[in-house]
Amino acid sequence: MTDTSTQTAALPHLRGTSGFRRITLALFASGLATFTTLYCVQALLPALSTDFGLSPAQASLAVSLGTAGLAVGVIPLTALSGVVGRTPVMTASLFTAAVLGVAQAVSPSFTVLLVLRALQGLALAGLQATAMSYLSEEIDRRSLGTAMGLYIAGNGIGGLAGRVIASLVLDVSNWRWALAVVGVVALGCAVVFRVSIVPSVFFEPSPPRVRHLATSIGRAFTDSGLVRLFACGFLLMGCFVTVYNYLGFRLLAPPFSLSPVLVGLVFVVYLAGSASSTVAGRLVDTLGRPRMLPVTVAITLAGLALMLADNLVLVVAGLVVTTAGFFAAHSVASGWVGPRAATLGVQGPAVYLFCYYLGSSVGGSVGGLAYSADGWRGVSLYAGAFVLAVLVLATSLRKLAPAKPRL
């Protein structure tokens, strides 16, 4: 339970303080672990397709079931963190997900692998929205954009690390060893998180109230600004996961015919997401979210257009731009949800992440049908339609009135 006297004396952590550095390191490590384990299988989809005799869309279920588990668990586990505390739930989530990641390496069938992936996503659900709530509570609002940007940067580097590590191990061994190595890396990140995280000071535990939770979630959908932000998360992630799910299949085939290890190295462009989310976080603190979101979405759309070319240099350049734009947009949108939801007193971050990962599960799987129907052009049209819709929403959010507290 929170010490009231300590809460009264303490101040939220401001950029430049020791507490801010420890928190951002811990949350960076958590984002690294989450995205390393969640998306390493994207680099393994062609190998899983060959080994189990699956179509690209069927193989992509290894990604979709993981994010589906996360989407299903994010609201109830975030509510649980409101009862037992933010840091215990985040710690348990990270260690459980790492152990499940190692267990996936010995899956006797694709069905068992899918079950373990779903359970791993469910475990990671305890980290995602809880982390956003923790940052909103413990970080000074003047530094929240920077902290959120660094957290998203950890997600970006995790996505890179998972794909590259899996590809490199796959080149010398098989997908089983790749999953085992990624699981061990995630375990190391969990240890860093546990050592670095600062105990909550401004967290106030509340008893489990199912009716109150349902009401809070329902009220989140009565605010037009939050609904548009939820839609942005769904559409952005649906676009992004589709691009990364099927890009490997495209690059392995003519006219590129790259080796698996070279395809894995292409994912180094994920670093662009880490850099852009950090920069976007800093710019939000000075320019504001209404100005930043449409710009970041437009950048994402430009990257998709570049990737249409059958030229490897343009494809990689387009992937850099798409990745940078996506992570910047996600950083801005997710950072916008927390303060607005807090003002309204609703479960905004949890609902945003439910929509976000639902976009990954549904969008990524349906994107496989677009790839099967018309190759990369089908993927481009599909993902481009998602981003155009986000651009319309982002433009409308520029006229959004400030949220009024509900009593």
UniProtKB/TrEMBL annotation:
Q: What is this protein called?
A: YNFM family putative membrane transporter
Q: Name all Major facilitator superfamily (MFS) profile domain ranges.
A: 23-401
Membrane topology of this protein: Multi-pass membrane protein
Gene Ontology cellular component annotations, sorted alphabetically: plasma membrane
Q: Could you list the residue ranges that cross the membrane?
A: 23-45, 57-77, 147-165, 177-204, 225-247, 259-280, 292-309, 315-338, 350-373, 379-397
Q: Which organism is it from?
A: Amycolatopsis jiangsuensis
Which family does the record claim for this protein?
Belongs to the major facilitator superfamily.
| Keyword Ribosomal protein applies | no
Does the entry feature the keyword Transmembrane helix, yes or no?
yes
| Cellular localisation | Cell membrane
Single GO MF annotation = transmembrane transporter activity
Q: Which Pfam families match?
A: MFS_1
Cross-referenced Gene3D superfamilies, in alphabetical order? MFS general substrate transporter like domains
UniProt KW keywords: Cell membrane, Membrane, Transmembrane, Transmembrane helix, Transport
